[in-house]
């Protein structure tokens, strides 16, 4: 914990103290770059819904394309996800999806050839991927409802259907597409280069949250790929579910980072802004806001620390991950609302960052399973009774 006269860092439980020295140094190097280079560079693009391609090489150089596969501890991975979320939830979404759902899927379920062709470029962040699961008519009920089809042909497969909300769908070099095999009705995953004829991605305009992340509607019009496009390890929805276990835990860390941002922004604002001749930080109600945000943040961080322990031990199950995701994003939403109130009118001006964080949190509250769906998953595990199919 920072000492005496220094104010505490937003790592209020000092989780980094548990990292081996080498990982702690690496985390601090990453945080330094994120705070000094990335944080000031994302505010304007956020207001214009623009992606920030120029920031990717810097993230790649820091190894942010490899954290899932380079043997880092689960706690280090979590603290890195939080550090990125603390400066920008869109970039955190990109890096999280990239590591957990793109690199992770290919590394665990891909063929030797798929790994050799794509992992080096992906890990250097020289290429990015799109994870294509959700559809226009099937969000929460995707497992049962998935309608995109893959039909066996003499040469390979023909993919037909549409997807919605796909992160980086207009920017990615490859898409991992979940489609239903018309022969056996199983949901399988296909690696589709995005320059394949018939792949049509359109940016979703006018989002009010996660505005830097480019989400797309994608249509697959008779997209023909070879037999080698099928990921040999991804031959049923159970494999997608295994990936969602890790990615739900990652979103829990996003909730931690987002609350660190709320805490950072509010504390520095309250120590500068004066009303009635004194700093906002000296008003009791503002102090209560700060204390409540700190409590939410520590509750989320402490829970995520234990989630990392369970992951390291191989004991993490969906009930844990779903609860962590739901709880951390619920608390983040509550913290952002307090933070936004405490900035007064400036709480709705993007230059002051709070409204950026608050709006971005709305997206993480709904993706990777909405709050309701994750709650139903938890309660099903706890009661043995399913409220949905
Ligand atoms: C910014 C963003 C990025 C995303 N990125 C990706 C991506 O890269 N790849 C991808 O595949 N998907 C992505 N998604 C999709 C995301 O996973 C879905 O939005 C999510 O699963 C919810 O689906 P939906 O939006 O269709 O909501 P719906 O399923 O239509 O839900 C609407 C409301 O109904 C509630 N509801 C639904 N069913 C039930 C029930 N049985 N009981 C109680 N309440 C219920 C929900 O909780 C919600 O409140 C992204 C979404 C967002 C917003």
UniProtKB/TrEMBL annotation:
Keywords: FAD, Flavoprotein, Oxidoreductase
UniProt xrefs under Pfam families: Acyl-CoA_dh_1, Acyl-CoA_dh_M, Acyl-CoA_dh_N
Claim: Flavoprotein is one of the keywords in the record: yes
Cofactor entry: FAD
Limits of the Acyl-CoA oxidase/dehydrogenase middle domain: 130-223
UniProt keyword Oxidoreductase, yes or no: yes
Chain ranges of the Acyl-CoA dehydrogenase/oxidase C-terminal domain: 238-382
InterPro entries reported for this sequence: ACX4-like (IPR045008), Acyl-CoA_DH_CS (IPR006089), Acyl-CoA_Oxase/DH_mid-dom (IPR006091), Acyl-CoA_Oxase/DH_mid-dom_sf (IPR046373), AcylCo_DH-like_C (IPR036250), AcylCo_DH/oxidase_C (IPR009075), AcylCoA_DH/ox_N (IPR013786), AcylCoA_DH/ox_N_sf (IPR037069)
Domain Acyl-CoA dehydrogenase/oxidase N-terminal: 22-124
SUPFAM superfamilies xrefs: Acyl-CoA dehydrogenase C-terminal domain-like, Acyl-CoA dehydrogenase NM domain-like
Family: Belongs to the acyl-CoA dehydrogenase family.
Protein name according to UniProt: Acyl-CoA dehydrogenase
Species in which this protein is naturally found: Micrococcus lylae
């Amino acid at each position: 914990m920072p000492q005496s006269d220094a104010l505490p860092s937003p790592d209020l439980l000092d989780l980094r103290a548990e990292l081996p020295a080498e990982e702690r140094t690496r985390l601090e190097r990453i945080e330094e770059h994120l705070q000094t280079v990335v944080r000031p560079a994302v505010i304007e693009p956020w207001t214009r819904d623009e992606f920030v391609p120029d920031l990717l090489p810097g993230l790649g150089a820091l190894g942010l394309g490899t954290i899932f596969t380079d043997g880092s501890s689960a706690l280090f991975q979590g603290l890195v996800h939080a550090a990125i979320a603390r400066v920008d939830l869109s970039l955190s979404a990109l890096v999280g999806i990239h590591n957990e759902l793109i690199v992770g899927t290919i590394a665990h379920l891909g063929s030797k050839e798929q790994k050799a062709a794509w992992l080096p470029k992906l890990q250097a962040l020289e290429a990015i991927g799109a994870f294509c699961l959700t559809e226009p008519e099937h969000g929460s009920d995707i497992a049962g409802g998935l309608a995109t089809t893959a039909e066996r042909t003499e040469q390979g497969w023909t993919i037909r259907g549409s997807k919605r909300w796909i992160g980086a769908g207009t920017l990615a070099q490859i898409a991992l597409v979940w489609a239903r095999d018309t022969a056996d009705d199983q949901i399988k995953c296909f690696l589709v280069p995005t320059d394949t004829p018939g792949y049509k991605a359109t940016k979703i305009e006018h989002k009010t949250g996660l505005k830097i992340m480019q989400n797309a509607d994608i249509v697959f019009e008779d997209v023909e790929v070879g037999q080698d496009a099928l990921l040999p390890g991804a031959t049923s929805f159970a494999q997608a579910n295994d990936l969602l276990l890790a990615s739900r835990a990652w979103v829990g860390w996003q909730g931690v980072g987002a609350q660190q941002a709320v805490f950072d922004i509010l504390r520095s604002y309250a120590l500068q802004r004066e009303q009635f001749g004194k700093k906002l930080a000296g008003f009791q109600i503002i102090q209560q806001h700060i204390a409540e945000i700190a409590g939410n943040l520590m509750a989320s961080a402490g829970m995520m620390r234990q989630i990392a322990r369970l992951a390291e031990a191989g004991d993490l199950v969906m009930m844990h991950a779903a609860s962590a995701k739901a709880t951390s994003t619920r608390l983040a939403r509550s913290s952002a609302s307090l933070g936004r109130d405490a900035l007064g009118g400036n709480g709705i001006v993007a230059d002051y960052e709070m409204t950026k964080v608050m709006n971005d949190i709305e997206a993480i509250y709904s993706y990777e399973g909405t709050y309701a769906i994750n709650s139903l998953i938890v309660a099903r595990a706890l009661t043995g009774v399913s409220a949905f199919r």
